[in-house]
Amino acid sequence: MPSTKTPSRLLKLKGSRRLNHGKVEPVAEAVTGSLSPPADLSVAERKMWNNVCGRLEGMGILASSDVELLYCYVKSWSTYLECYQAMKRDGPYTENKSGGLSKHPAFQVAKDCYTQMYQISQAFGFTPAARGHIDAAKTPTVQDPKKKGPDRFFRTGS
Length: 158
What we know:
Blueprint (H helix, E strand, L loop, with lengths): L7 H7 L28 H17 L7 H24 L2 E3 L5 E3 L2 H19 L3 H6 L25
Antiparallel strand pairs: 1-2
Helix pairs in contact: 2-3, 3-4
């Protein structure tokens, strides 16, 4: 199976040394505002959509090409919550045909949704491990030249 090459933009964000120098690659258009959520999202899904868009925009990596991946993330999150509510209501086990206990039918669906959300979270840099691989721009802190000693490293409330 042929391997797909990681785009230079992502390699650069991760701080990789394997940048594809000299090769021109299509670049996704950066978005300066939140992406409009699809019309079929519920109110709770729209809130999650805006939350995720805000995080990506804060990291400076929100792009119009992220719409499908965001949609999958939000729908997986919503389905996961539905499964969780069903298991909370019915309990984690159900009685099977032979009278024994079996996992709730929603358990595997919830597990699959969680796995998909985790993978998308890795792609967007939401997990601690993924953030370690992304070299996000950091705002330099300006030190007050009037402060002396260890106080120069701490901000005060004023």
